[in-house]
Specification:
Dimer of heterotrimers. Each heterotrimer consists of a large, a medium and a small subunit. With 805 residues, the chain is of the alpha+beta class. The chain is built from 20 helices and 34 strands. It has three domains: 172 residues, Aldehyde oxidase/xanthine dehydrogenase, molybdopterin binding domain (Aldehyde Oxidoreductase, domain 4, 2-Layer Sandwich), CATH 3.30.365; 183 residues, Aldehyde oxidase/xanthine dehydrogenase, a/b hammerhead (Aldehyde Oxidoreductase, domain 3), CATH 3.90.1170; 331 residues, Aldehyde oxidase/xanthine dehydrogenase, molybdopterin binding domain (Aldehyde Oxidoreductase, domain 4), CATH 3.30.365. The longest helix has 28 residues. The termini are far apart. The structure holds pterin cytosine dinucleotide and CU(I)-S-MO(VI)(=O)OH cluster. The site of CU(I)-S-MO(VI)(=O)OH cluster has 14 residues, from loops.
Length: 805
């Protein structure tokens, strides 16, 4: 034993544990072209699949003639619904309890829908063959407006035309999917109808798309000799894909290996199950060869999971002095052709009923009508925490409208209605139990940081100058305070297709004191390999640099529900900490044996166990690991491994205060962002630098969504934004500068007090940008302007307000 005990602070620093801005270990390969994405996977004799897609949004498929395509040299097969039908795979179940056509079965319901699957020697031949497949269509009336769809005689989903109930209860119309309600309707109406002040508004959160840099794709490889199916793919939940693939194909689950390699951004786009996966598996089984399918950009934008498309009719009431008394939300949710939303099963509107936000609202009601239209299916996806983005936008707009109604400053209106620190754990009117928060401190810090009062004074001066004709720019101050809900979670009320939403971590300590930990989650850019090693480093005293984190291979990783809903830290992060504690408990027994004292006479200190009261007597974790494998210890099994499956008792409720200041040019419609301040509270911070990166990325997506990005359709159901010429993806040129800040209110139920953060900046960012636009034009009577606030729409709003007269 050496007595050159390094200084304790040095030992802590060497671990690079909790709170350390450790550099991302994955970046060496990402920045040097050494990532391994699905399209990098190449196998001998691999074939390539591509889809014939519908040019029409609603049409009957009269005939499909693949003879010319099949005659093309290099074409191996063309699959249609007829080929899949005998296998029962022409339709597939969706995550939302609906079913979806894998390949067009009699009709098509959205532009870009998969009609036939061409398998060829290479991608180029496949693309040529797609052009040669002759499909005859008979056009049908198109419904792109959910309100009209609910009035129409046209039945979109003929397959369920006669069914008066679906997975989520009664269907009131052939194009109606569900009505989902939460809260006390009668009491809410009664309070609002007799209130001093009521603000009412229709708020639309437009349809958009996650658009990750890497599109969706997979490689299916059926080994007919060994009966093993290997599926590589861009999956945010590989274990769920394995289970679903087994249930659908009848292949026993141990014979299926699902691997998510490096993923180039998911943002929710890669949670769902797509026809491309099913067709590739079938094609590999039929041909006996590996089959690769990778979307191009248009495929991705037109056909895979969209986001939002929520029409939210709100009413909010208050006393004359601004105390909110009730909130009502009646939502019309456009789900497109199939209800393929990725939510926990019991929540067809996700966690939208977090829409009372950060405010102590005594009574509330939410009713959400899901509707079929001739648009792409999917839904929820896009840094959303299961519809929390819509909820936060809704309440943060309603607060602004109420402030106008009350003639009150919107910052003050928020402050007097915040849930107070002493009210946590807080029971919301819509059924949530908020775990912890300190909103007033965060708000005051944010307002002070931007110099709120000074900004308002400057804004007033600029308005006066505008009115004097000295400037054509108006200043807007966009306020946003959000409460997130992440970490699904609790198995008792959160499942996906019956699979409870726990998560897992399995750790093996190697004899020489390094380790590997495997998790049920999968990083898509969030830096799990960096941050989960930090949790472990602090728990078990082995440096993060000596711990490999592995995810995404179902043959090796413990079963988990994957990465979305910012659940990795709240759930798998908790499992990691608890598995670490199991390692530590065993290490303690080994240390006590080696030090010849009783178990309770040693205690953990950073990277070692020391004898209580005798700090010079210790065993480092490396020494303990060695002994675990090389020394017979009475009553203790050899080895040092642990596994933890964690079912969280509650979700975590991160929150934040975001403020955006911009100048709106009423003549050009341009919005120049002056500053964006973002204060996040995600409880205990594992890696401040990674958190900042998450916030920057999410704010950039929020900026895009609020200011220009949308999935737009014309009346014929043509998708008008299926390329990056039309769909706005911000580059560094457009991206504003961000200032990040934080407070730290630990979660009381999470083993290390951490809450999720991955989606917070999108949830809080969109209202901040949007409210700034509204705030700039508010002196001229603007109450509500639908997003995205692109130059044209801002110009149009200014024009409508008479500012060009
Ligand atoms: N973190 C931390 N301290 C905390 C909370 C989180 O250091 N208190 C770190 C975590 O350890 C992790 C990262 O921040 O490295 C994000 O953690 P978490 O909030 O748990 O979210 P997930 O890992 O579950 O990621 C999912 C979330 C979602 S749902 C979307 S959508 C989104 C997002 O992450 N997609 C992303 N951020 C993304 N970032 C990238 N680069 N790519 C995506 O596709
Ligand atoms: Cu809602 S997008 Mo994320 O949960 O993968």
């Amino acid at each position: 034993m050496n007595d050159l005990t390094p200084d304790r602070d040095d030992r802590v620093a060497k671990l690079k544990g909790l709170g350390c801005s450790r550099k991302r270990v994955e970046d060496a390969r990402f920045t040097q072209g050494k990532g391994n994405y699905v399209d990098d996977i190449k196998m001998p004799d691999m074939l390539h699949g591509d889809f014939v897609r519908s040019p029409y949004a609603h049409a009957r498929v009269v005939s499909i003639d693949a003879s010319a395509a099949l005659a093309l040299d290099g074409v191996v097969a063309v699959l249609t619904a007829k080929d899949l039908e005998p296998l029962g795979l022409h339709w597939m179940p969706t995550l939302a309890g609906d079913k979806q056509m894998v390949l067009a079965d009699g009709k098509v319901l959205f532009q870009g829908q998969e009609v036939a699957y061409v398998v060829a020697r290479n991608r180029y031949v496949a693309a040529d063959a797609v052009e040669l497949v002759e499909v005859e269509y008979e056009e049908l009336e198109v419904l792109v407006d959910p309100f009209k769809a609910l009035q129409s005689d046209v039945t979109l989903r003929e397959d369920i035309a006669g069914e008066t109930s679906g997975a989520h209860g009664e269907r009131r119309h052939p194009n109606h999917i569900f009505l989902w309600e939460e809260g006390d309707k009668a009491a809410t109406e009664q309070v609002i109808d007799s209130a001093d002040v009521v603000a009412e508004e229709m708020i639309y959160y437009h349809r958009t798309h996650p658009c990750p840099l890497e599109t969706c794709g997979c490689v299916a490889s059926m080994d007919k000799v060994n009966g093993k199916l290997t599926l590589y793919g861009t999956f945010q939940a590989p274990h769920v894909v394995r289970t679903v693939a087994s249930l659908l194909s009848g292949i026993e689950e141990h014979n299926i290996r699902v691997v998510s390699p490096d993923i180039g951004g998911g943002f929710g786009n890669k949670v769902g199950v797509y026809p491309g996966y099913v067709c590739s598996i079938v094609a590999s089984i039929v041909t006996g060869k590996p089959v690769k399918w990778v979307e191009d950009r248009m495929d991705n934008l037109m056909a895979t999971a969209f986001a939002r498309d929520y029409w939210m009719k709100g009413r909010i009431s208050a006393t004359k002095d601004g105390k909110i008394t009730a909130l009502e939300a009646k939502v019309t949710a456009d789900h497109g052709a199939f209800d393929a939303c990725a939510d926990p099963t019991k929540f067809p509107a996700g966690f939208f009923h977090i829409c009372t936000g950060s405010y102590d609202i005594p009574v509330a009601y939410v009713g959400v009508d899901g509707v079929y239209t001739n648009k792409a299916p999917g839904g929820v996806a896009y840094r959303c925490s299961f519809r929390v983005t819509e909820a936060a936008y809704f309440i943060e707009r309603m607060i602004e409208v109420l402030a106008i109604e009350l003639g009150m400053d919107a910052a003050e209106l928020r402050r007097i209605n915040f849930i107070r620190e002493d009210q946590f754990p807080y029971q919301s009117a819509l059924g949530w139990e908020y775990d912890s928060g300190d909103y007033h401190t965060a708000w005051d810090k944010a307002l002070a940081a931007v110099g709120y009062d000074g900004l308002r004074a400057e804004q007033a001066e600029q308005l006066a100058a505008f009115k004097r004709g000295e400037t054509r720019k108006l200043m807007g101050i966009g306020l946003s305070f959000f409460t997130e809900i992440v970490g699904a979670g609790p198995v008792k009320n959160c499942d996906i297709l019956g699979m409870g939403m726990f998560d897992s971590c399995e750790i093996r300590i190697h004899p020489t004191g390094s380790a590997i930990a495997r998790l049920g989650t999968i990083s898509q850019g969030q830096g799990h390999a960096t941050t989960f090693a930090q949790i472990l480093a602090s728990e078990i005293g082995i440096p993060a640099d000596s711990i490999t984190i592995e995810e995404g291979d179902t043959d090796t990783a413990p079963y988990g529900l994957g990465t979305y809903g910012s659940r990795s830290t709240p759930v798998a992060g908790a499992a990691t900490a608890l598995a670490g504690r199991k390692i530590r408990a065993k290490a303690q027994m080994i240390a006590a044996y080696l030090l010849e004292v009783h178990d309770n006479d040693v205690e953990f200190d950073v990277d070692r166990f020391v004898v209580k009261g005798a700090p010079e007597r210790f065993k480092t974790m490396a020494e303990i690991a060695y002994a675990a494998y090389h020394q017979a210890i009475p009553g203790v099994e050899p080895g040092l491994e642990a596994v933890s499956y964690y079912d969280p008792p509650n979700m975590t409720y991160p929150f934040g205060a975001y403020i955006c200041v911009m100048d709106v040019d009423v003549d050009t419609g341009e919005a120049h962002i002056r500053q964006v301040y973002a204060l996040d509270d995600c409880g205990t911070r594992i890696n401040p630098m990674v958190i900042e990166g998450q916030v920057h990325g999410g704010l950039t997506e929020a900026y895009a969504i609020a200011m220009a990005q949308e999935m737009a359709y014309d009346d014929m159901g043509n998708c008008k934004t299926a390329t990056l010429m039309d769909f706005f993806l911000p580059t560094t040129w457009e991206t504003p500068h961000y200032t990040t800040d934080h407070t730290e209110t630990p979660s009381p139920h999470h083993p290390i007090g951490a809450k999720g953060v991955g989606e917070s900046p999108n949830v809080g960012g969109v209202p901040a940008f949007s409210n700034a636009v509204h705030d700039a034009l508010r002196p001229f009577g603007l109450r509500q302007l639908h997003m995205p606030h692109d130059h044209w729409r801002i110009w149009k709003a200014a024009n409508d307000l008479g500012l060009h007269d």
